[in-house]
Each structure stands twice: as structure tokens, then as C-alpha cells.
Amino acid sequence: MPDDTAVSIHQLSKSFDDVEVLRDVSLEVAPGEVVTILGASGSGKSTLLRCINWLEQPDRGSIHIAGQRIGVDDAGKRMNARALARVRAQTGMVFQSFNLWPHLNVLHNITEAPVHVMGKSKGEAQTHARELLDKVGLSDKAQAYPGTLSGGQKQRVAIARALAMQPEVMLFDEPTSALDPELVGEVLTVIKDLSAEGYTMVIVTHEMSFARAVSDQVVFLDKGLIIEKAAPATFFDTPSTQRVRDFLKNHH
Amino acid sequence: MSNWDILWQARDEFWTGFLNTMQIFGLSITAAFVIGCFMLYLLEGRPSVGKLSLRVFIDGMRMLPFLMLAYLLYYGLPTLGVRLDAWWAGVGALAVYHGCYFAEIFRGSRLVFPQGQIEAAQAHGFTRARMFVRLILPQIVMQTRPLIGNQLIYALKDTAFLVIITVRELTAAANSLSGTYFIPTEAFLVVIGFYWAVSIAMEIIIKQCGRFGARRGLDHA
Hints:
Radius of gyration of chain B: 21 Å
CATH topology of the largest domain in chain A: Rossmann fold
Largest sheet of chain B: none
Strand content of chain A: 15-25%
Number of domains of chain A: 2
Number of strands of chain A: 10
Order of helices and strands of chain A: EEEHEEHEHHHEHEHEEHH
Mean pLDDT of chain A: 94
Number of domains of chain B: 1
CATH architecture of the largest domain in chain A: 3-Layer(aba) Sandwich
CATH class of the largest domain in chain A: Alpha Beta
Helix content of chain A: 25-40%
Strand content of chain B: under 5%
Oligomer: heterodimer
Largest sheet of chain A: 6 strands, mixed
């Protein structure tokens, strides 16, 4: 398996009961690359993203993160919990519904995993956390509790929290779908800044103009199959399938 | 000499009984809390035979009158060759019995714990134990504090049952004075006052903890 990819997905399949949500999906993400996954709801795009850090377990196929296989060990057996946690720690995930830990203030949300998973010292983790809060424009909210923040602020904290793991890849699962329209922009701006800084990202989104602006590669899923994979200009201007043309018509 | 004068002269007996009650209560409720947390952890994850047995044990305890458990530990265990001191039998019975109640209180809250927070923890590389201690348990304890307060009062009152296995606690003091001088009303009124005072103090403390939670935006998260 190529070691120079950030994420390498090989012939992934997954069913829920008897519905096939992913069918032989393969995808490679190079370091520094931004890949957006588009598709109608139920097309399998969130499932694909959640397989990357093993929140969903695929039935067949393999996933490597920075050359390391997730979920299955070298002997081909299911990974033990500790080993799985170690690989997962190399991915950063941002959820649609933020999923901050409400009993911890913003700073502690961000330092929690670096200190208690990676074993960083508190001081080091807090210094890094403050830099990240600065990056997402929330340096004044370090002591605030999540319950007092707006949706856009919560999502920016969630992004900082994921970045604090210094992950090989950032995974975004519809990061703006739960936000009021006027709060979408502030989150998308942060993600765009990250792409400019060279972060590797896989993003599931419904924001078409954002996908066009931020992506190096656009992947379109339909009924669990990748039916288009192209540079954004090609994908949006000259899609090769009727399915994508129809989809884009409905989203403009 | 009025009945109240008699009781005043016997104040040392009340005080000794009260201290004994508070020791039993403090020790057993702390142990019960730890047992409840530990049981909740054991119930984490996919169903298994072990977890099912634990649930049956918890339910069995909850459905057992506390008096029976105290009897069994003190009078029943010796037939199996285990003889417990009355004081320790009482503490043990209270700890296990209320530990099961705590487990059930926490379990109810755990059932509605947001799955998204768990997924976030998994995605950030948390293992099950660390996630439980750092993220799940603190929130569950904060959320269930009214029920915890209720359970504290319940457990305090259950210490009174220990008089029947010869523990010299508060109710035993009242019992012995009322027997000696035949002044049951006054003696028991004094004891009720003690139980009320401690209960009210606990309720106030739990309320203060609630304010602490509200300041952190937890109650309207």
C-alpha cells in the first residue's frame, strides 16, 4: 500500500441490513490535498467519511491513514481497542452537530485529548490550544462553556479541538448543515484558511460554491458508488454524467 | 424533672449515637457512590451474559427490603461461616444496597447520554475507560444530582434500621432512652430533628452544586 498517501481507501463496501450503502469505493488523498465528497442524502457520503476513522466498520476493503491500516492489525485480525484509538488519534473529525463536551470550557475541550490521549503536558497543550483559538478567531472565548456559544462558534471550537491532535487528515461531516444561514460563512472561512495552510482534508458538504473554491478533487457518490471524481472546474463546468448534471441543477 | 430535662441529661448518648450514625452514613454512602459508578462502567458496551447478570443483581437488590439485607448479612452469613461485626455488617449492607440504587440512577441518565459526544471522544482517540472517567461520568453525576440528593436522604434514613442488628446509632439511643424512662414521644422527636437537620443540610449542599453547574452553562446546554 502506498505510504505517501494521507488516506488510501481500497474497494470499500458496507451494508446496513440489506441496503448496500458503499460499493467497492476506492479513493486516495495525497498529503495537503482537499477532497470534497458530494452526493444526495442517502448516497453513502457520510458513511464513507465515518469509515475512515472506523466510526462505521466497513464489511470489506481496507483503509490506510498515512500508511497505517485502521481497524485491522497486521495479522488480519480486528484491532484491539488501544491500537484502534492510536490510529484514530491521527485523524481529526468535525461533526455536523459539533459534539463538544459541555462540562468542559472551550480551552479544556481543546486540551482534553492532547493531555489525556497523547500525553502532552498541560502547559504545552494550553499554549497550542490558544494558538488554535486564535486561528479560528475565538481567542476571547477560552474560558466560555459550550452552552453559551452560538452554533458557528461551537463549530469553530470543534475545528480547533480536532486540529489540536495534529492529525494526518481532517474529516468534516457536513460541518455547516446544522447552522443558521448567517453563521455558515464564518465556519467555511476557517476551513478555507486551513486548506490554504496545506492541511489534508476530506469534506462532506452540501455547499457547492464552497466545494468548488476549496477542493483539489471532487468526488460524487450515488447509491454507494463513486460515479465522478474530478478537479472542481471539470466537475462543476463539464460533468460527464447526467446524474451529476441533474444534481447540480437542483443545487443552484 | 420534665421529660425534656431527662433527655437533656442524656445528651451524650444522643451525641454518641448521632456521631455513629454519621460515620456509618458517610462511609457507606461514599462506598455506595463508588460502587454505583463502577457498576455503571461495567454496564458499558455491548450486552453480554456478565452484564445481564449484573442487571439482575442490581434489580434484585432494589426489590429487596433493606431490613432483609441487614438481617441476612448479620444473622444469615454466620451460618455460612462468615461472621461480621454489627457495625461493618450495617455499613456493608448500606453500601451494596444503595450502590445498586446509584447504579440504576446513573444507568437511566447514561441511556439518554448524547451519542455524538461518545463519537467525538472515539474520533479523538479516547479509550473506553478514559472516556468514561473524563467525559461520561462527570456529566452523569452533574445531571443526576437531584436524584443523588434524594438517595442520600433515603440512605440516611436506612441507617435507622441498623438498630435491629444492635448497632448503637442514633435511633438506638432514642430507643434505649424511651425504654428506660418511658418517654417515647420526646426521645423520637429529638431523633427526627437530627435526621431532618442532616437532610436539610444535604439538600442545601446539592442545591449549591446545582448553581456551580448552572454557572458553567450545563443546565441549559
